């Protein structure tokens, strides 16, 4: 498909991203996504500061059994960077919902990690009739209450760090790079750097840590809605235990309070970015639970 005007001028490597890039005209402009394979839809939602590239190995491993759909939120990856957009988690969830309706995805499995968790849970809780099951890893869906998350939000939202994020691409390198347990090649990691080449293009990345605190009301409503409409849905929790933010038993316990029958898979040698650190474990977990 021809690249729309206004999106990042970056061509992913066919070796590392062997997919057809597609765009749909959302309410805020062209949104990039991939749609690979056939079968039950598998909606794959990224967090910060990444994009659908994060799911490349999982898509390759599952597209013979699932219809794998992964998008880039506005301001991320190969999607539009809208000027009037506020880059809130609530807005991102609304765009994902638009794509689900645009593609008429039914009987789908939703996977989310980092901010893809609350965004995915929001979408799922607003259209539970379309949901077959859930897969969540190293994420949350409730208002941030613990000291670690609040401190991270305050630090990353401070003027000096916001300046580093926008001017030096600090969230991608070194923060994301040093968080990875997997050893990526320079070309692979450049796919995360190259899609945000300017300070302005990093606005969405800079806003996400601020949202940890600012989205309190949205997250509070989401938590209540999840309890009301998603508790009976099948859930797989796949957790990288080397993640200082979420790789803790108390975070897992919070999930299991709502989903006591969830399948739990702890990956001791994986960190926050489990899609890079443990793609084979994710492929196996989704196949075992939802294939067929």
Query: What is the number of E strands?
Result: 8
The percent range for strand residues is 15-25%
Named CATH architecture of the domain at 22-144 and 217-290 = 3-Layer(aba) Sandwich
Q: Strand order within the widest sheet?
A: 1-2-4-3-5-6-7-8
> In CATH, what is the homologous superfamily of the domain at 22-144 and 217-290?
Alpha/Beta hydrolase fold, catalytic domain
In helices, the fraction of residues equals 40-55%
| Tally of individual helices | 12
Mean pLDDT rating:
97
Q: Strands, helices and their partners?
A:
Blueprint: E1 22-26, E2 29-36, E3 40-45, H1 56-62, E4 66-71, H2 89-103, E5 108-113, H3 116-126, E6 131-137, H4 147-156, H5 159-168, H6 171-179, H7 186-193, H8 203-214, H9 216-229, E7 235-240, H10 249-258, E8 263-267, H11 274-277, H12 279-290
Helix pairs in contact: 1-12, 2-3, 3-9, 4-8
Task: Provide a descriptive summary of the structure in words.
The chain has 292 residues and is an alpha/beta fold. It has a domain at 22-144 and 217-290: Alpha/Beta hydrolase fold, catalytic domain (Rossmann fold), CATH 3.40.50.1820. The protein has 12 helices and 8 strands. The chain has helices spanning 56-62, 89-103, 116-126, 147-156, 159-168, 171-179, 186-193, 203-214, 216-229, 249-258, 274-277, 279-290; strands spanning 22-26, 29-36, 40-45, 66-71, 108-113, 131-137, 235-240, 263-267. An 8-stranded mixed β-sheet has the order 1-2-4-3-5-6-7-8, sandwiched between helices. The mean pLDDT is 97.
């Amino acid at each position: 498909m021809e690249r729309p005007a206004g999106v990042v001028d970056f061509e992913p490597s066919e070796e590392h991203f062997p997919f057809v890039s597609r765009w749909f005209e959302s309410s805020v402009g062209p949104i990039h996504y991939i749609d690979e394979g056939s079968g039950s839809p598998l909606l794959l939602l990224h967090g910060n500061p990444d994009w659908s590239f994060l799911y490349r190995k999982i898509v390759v491993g599952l597209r013979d059994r699932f219809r794998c759909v992964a998008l880039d939120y506005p301001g991320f990856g190969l999607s539009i960077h809208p000027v009037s957009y506020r880059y809130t988690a609530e807005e991102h969830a609304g765009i994902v919902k638009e794509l689900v309706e645009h593609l008429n995805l039914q009987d789908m499995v939703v996977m989310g990690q980092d901010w893809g968790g609350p965004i995915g849970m929001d979408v799922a809780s607003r259209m539970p009739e379309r949901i077959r099951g859930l897969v969540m890893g190293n994420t949350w869906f409730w208002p941030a209450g613990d000291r670690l998350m609040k401190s991270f939000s305050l630090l990353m939202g401070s003027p000096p760090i916001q300046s580093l994020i926008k001017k030096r691409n600090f969230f991608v390198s070194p923060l994301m790079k040093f968080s990875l347990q997997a050893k990526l090649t320079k070309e692979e990691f450049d796919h995360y750097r190259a899609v945000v080449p300017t300070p302005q293009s990093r606005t969405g990345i800079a806003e996400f840590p601020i949202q940890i605190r600012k989205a309190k009301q949205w997250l509070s409503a989401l938590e209540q809605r999840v309890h009301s409409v998603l508790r009976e849905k099948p859930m797989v929790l796949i957790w990288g235990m080397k993640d200082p933010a979420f790789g803790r038993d108390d975070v897992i316990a919070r999930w299991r309070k709502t989903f006591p029958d969830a399948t739990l898979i702890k990956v001791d040698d994986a960190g926050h970015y489990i899609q890079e650190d443990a793609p084979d474990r994710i492929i196996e977990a989704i196949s075992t639970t939802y294939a067929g």
